[in-house]
Design a protein that fits this description.
The complex is a heterodimer of chains A (279) and B (521). Chain A is mainly alpha-helical. Chain A has helices spanning 3-12, 14-36, 68-104, 106-121, 124-135, 139-149, 151-166, 169-176, 181-217, 229-237, 245-272, 274-277. Classes of the chains: A mainly alpha (279), B alpha+beta (521).
Chain lengths: 279, 521
């Protein structure tokens, strides 16, 4: 399968295409952010507070009179950043640990995987709350916390792939021909682990955005006046009876981005998983 | 149409009957929704509003404030006199009163209730942490039993605010038998003389009290009060709207507007005796110059803050205490909102604009600060307009109080409910050099001004109100010039409740006994 065919397959899969479209749209908004925002997302205009959607403020204003559209746009950048950085934080060490555990087995495997089991034993959000609370609540620490929480997931996926790859003839052949461990791992095992990692990372971005929003909602994530979507949602909750738009728009933004990552991830899995493709 | 007219006519005729049937009657359970649980119901050990509002239903003092004003009237004492030297206060006690456990109320009970606080040798002294000893009861050195129904309090120096302090919750008279039995657990099993008696406490959920059938005065009209903890403000509002609670405390100003618009519910308001302020840590080298503090005052638009976040339910503050308290200095000219002037003052004082100030925001809302984080965001924007960078810092309430009283902040938001309506409570208690000692400073600006402190101490020794007024007027001028706080607002306190309740009282300090409240069945 050439790369071009792969992309074509991907585009033919409606789920992947829809997901990609959503992510691309949000990415454009995030990158072009400051050019698009009609108002400064951080400067309050308290006398214009809690106005409903209008032509001046298409998404209305929040409790300090800030333009919600501008804040949602400003928040897109934060959310994408959270997704990418926290997934990177979990992906790199997770993959490395999984490779080592799966390939070398024995006590290395036991040591690494028991540590991973310990991390997994905590409910994800609880562990993330614990980490941010210890580190001091802010955006950077949110990304670190969400990243750490998902390390074991990557380690397990990679280890499972490595265990099956290790038995394959082409890997064993390299070993018998005198290939070093590094060469086997780097040139032969790792590349074949990549498809499941990509799928999981894509799905993981959605989860990371959601987790970070949850931390923001609890006041442990980005600190005011940052337009982080979870924090905006939390603020809006108080006005749900008099000004529902304050919670509705950031809520919809979270929904859309997470949906985008999930659709794209599902589509990717369908395309990359040979067992599904042959059907 | 005809049917409709007949129906209307019948309804109009029957309406008065319905009113008769539903008129106020005795009994029922009053459910009171509030933001959090109490800490201790022994009010000599409690400083938080949630403990005090529950405790005052069950415990009584020698004297009390009138139902809806801050005038002092008798409660367990029938009358009192002050000696000519101003050192001895003699109280004649009410006869025929019994505690909830059946024990008689007399001079011995008053003695034990006071002596456990002020006398380190009293057997009950080790059963508690007597927080008011260093504040309002500090000058009381001795309590003497004159006869079975007369006691005398002796102060080490003339102490004018004493009577108002005694009318607060802070020295309730408890049953000596119960204090001996429960020891340090008396706060979980309060036994007093009040119109309600303690029944049950489920932590973080509810406190239940029953009507005291043997009460010496007018008996409570409801059979039972349940204080229910509902931490989420919006959930409290919904509980009030649905009728699940009869009263909802501490709603935010936006929710109060919804309550006002609801036919089933009502709101009573009262200018409070509180202040919400931004304290400036005068110990930090970069905030030591009074011009910097004046600049911060000029940078903040209090009018807009009140019109928006307080929804108009406050008045802008220029002094440390509100105009409803005597000796308020109305001659003070407030610092006008003027970002350009603020910037100029910062420059004149040589303020380093690259420094990012830490702006500490309270994590809980209070009547004097209904939306602390929003207020902090607004102040942050105002400071930015004057060229000053700031970072909002948040932490949990216990840590916040501890760290601010250690002076770890640059700017911090706090407030005060001056329960006893005496200027001393604000000026000496929150701004004197004596209370600026870390750790545990009540003066979180750590402002140590000798002249100001002297004026406060002089006023404590002066019984003549005109003389005291002069001293306090002067003290407020010094405060204004030095601006260790930017006083922000004096908020209106409100009580939101269901119209099926009647005679709901509201004192300016928000603390009332609910014995007169009745509920429709």
């Amino acid at each position: 399968m050439s790369r071009w065919e792969g992309l074509q397959d991907l585009m033919r899969n409606w789920s992947a295409a829809a997901g990609m479209a959503i992510i691309a749209a949000i990415l454009v908004v995030a990158l072009a952010g400051p050019l698009l925002t009609p108002h400064d997302p951080l400067v309050p205009a308290p006398l214009d507070r809690l106005q409903g959607p209008s032509s001046a403020h298409p998404f209305g204003t929040d409790s300090l009179g800030r333009d919600i559209l501008s804040r949602v746009i400003g928040g897109a950048r934060i959310s994408i950043l959270i997704g990418v950085i926290s997934v990177t934080i979990s992906l790199l060490p997770g993959t490395l640990l999984g490779l080592l555990a799966g390939y070398f087995g024995r006590w290395i495997d036991s040591l690494i995987m028991r540590c991973m089991d310990m991390l997994l034993a905590f409910p994800a959000i609880l562990l993330a709350i614990f980490i941010t609370a210890v580190l001091e609540p802010n955006l950077t620490n949110t990304m670190i916390a969400v990243g750490i929480v998902y390390i074991p997931h990557y380690a397990r996926i990679v280890r499972a792939s490595v265990l099956s790859l290790k038995q394959q003839l082409f890997v064993q052949a390299v070993g018998h021909l005198g290939g070093s461990h590094t060469r086997i791992l780097w040139r032969h095992v790792l590349p074949n682990c990549i498809p499941p990692i990509i799928v999981y990372a894509t799905l993981g971005m959605g989860t990371a955005v959601l987790q970070a929003a949850a931390l923001g909602f609890l006041g442990l994530g980005a600190q005011p006046p940052s337009p982080e979507w979870g924090a905006m949602l939390s603020e809006g909750r108080q006005y749900i009876q008099i000004a529902p738009h304050v919670a509705a728009f950031p809520g919809a933004a979270i929904l859309l981005l997470v949906l985008g990552f999930n659709l794209f991830g599902d589509g990717l899995r369908d395309v990359l998983d040979p067992s599904l493709r042959s059907q | 149409m005809r049917k409709f007219i007949i129906l209307l006519a019948v309804t109009v005729c029957l309406a008065p009957l319905a009113v008769l049937a539903a008129g106020p009657s005795q009994g029922g359970t009053l459910i009171w929704g509030r933001g959090g649980d109490s800490v201790s119901l022994d009010l000599a050990q409690a400083t938080d509003g949630e403990s005090i509002k529950a405790g005052v239903q069950m415990l009584e003092n020698l004297v009390i404030f009138e139902k809806d004003s801050m005038n002092v009237v008798p409660q367990l004492a029938e009358s009192w006199t002050v000696s000519d030297d101003g050192l001895t206060w003699t109280f004649k006690l009410r006869k025929g009163v019994r505690f909830h456990d059946g024990e008689p109320f007399n001079a011995k009970a008053v003695y034990d209730s006071f002596a456990r606080v002020i006398d380190p040798n009293h057997p009950f002294h080790s059963y508690g942490k007597w927080v008011y000893l260093s504040l309002s009861l500090g000058p009381v050195k001795q309590i003497k039993v004159v006869d079975d129904y007369t006691v005398a309090l002796v102060t080490e120096k003339p102490y004018a605010p004493l009577l108002n302090n005694l009318a607060l919750w802070l020295c309730p008279i408890l049953s000596p038998k119960a204090m001996a039995e429960y020891k340090d657990q008396i706060g979980q099993h309060p036994v007093g003389t009040g119109p309600f008696k303690f029944s049950k406490w489920v932590k973080d959920d509810r406190i239940i009290m029953e009507c005291n059938p043997d009460y010496w005065g007018d008996k409570a009209k409801v059979d039972q009060i349940i204080l229910k903890s509902i931490p989420e403000s919006s959930a409290r509002l919904m509980a009030l709207q649905s009728g699940a609670v009869d009263i909802a405390d501490d709603l935010d100003p936006d929710s109060i507007r919804l309550v006002e618009a609801n036919d089933q519910l009502t709101v009573i308001k009262q200018p409070s005796v509180n202040v919400g302020y931004l304290a400036i840590n005068t110990d930090k080298p970069w905030l030591k110059d009074a011009r910097v503090r004046q600049a911060i005052a000029h940078a903040i638009d209090k009018e807009t803050l009140i019109a928006s976040i307080f929804q108009g339910m406050a008045i802008p503050a220029k002094n440390p205490f509100p105009p409803s308290i005597w000796s308020y200095n109305d001659g003070i000219k407030p610092y006008a909102y003027d970002p350009a002037k603020a910037k100029k003052l910062f420059e004149d004082a040589g303020f380093d604009f690259s420094r990012e100030l830490e702006l500490w925001a309270m994590p809980v809302s209070r009547a004097y600060m209904p939306e602390p984080v929003k207020t902090a965001e607004l102040i942050q924007a105002y400071l930015a307009a004057a060229g000053v960078k700031s970072k909002i810092v948040r932490m949990d309430w216990g840590t916040y109080l501890k760290k601010t009283s250690n002076g770890e902040h640059d700017l911090c938001m706090l407030g005060w409910l001056g329960g006893n309506a005496d200027p001393d409570n604000f000026l000496y208690g929150l701004l004197s050099a004596d209370t600026a000692k870390t750790p545990g400073a009540a003066n979180v600006a750590l402002w140590k001004n000798a002249e100001f402190t002297d004026l406060c101490l002089q006023a404590q020794r002066t019984f003549d109100k005109t003389e005291r007024t002069k001293l306090y007027l002067k003290a407020q001028e010094i405060f204004h010039q030095e601006q260790p706080w930017v006083p922000l607002a004096h908020s209106t306190i409100v009580r939101c409740y269901n119209k099926r309740l009647h005679d709901v009282p509201l004192r300016p300090n928000g603390l009332n006994s609910f014995q007169m409240v009745s509920k429709d069945k």
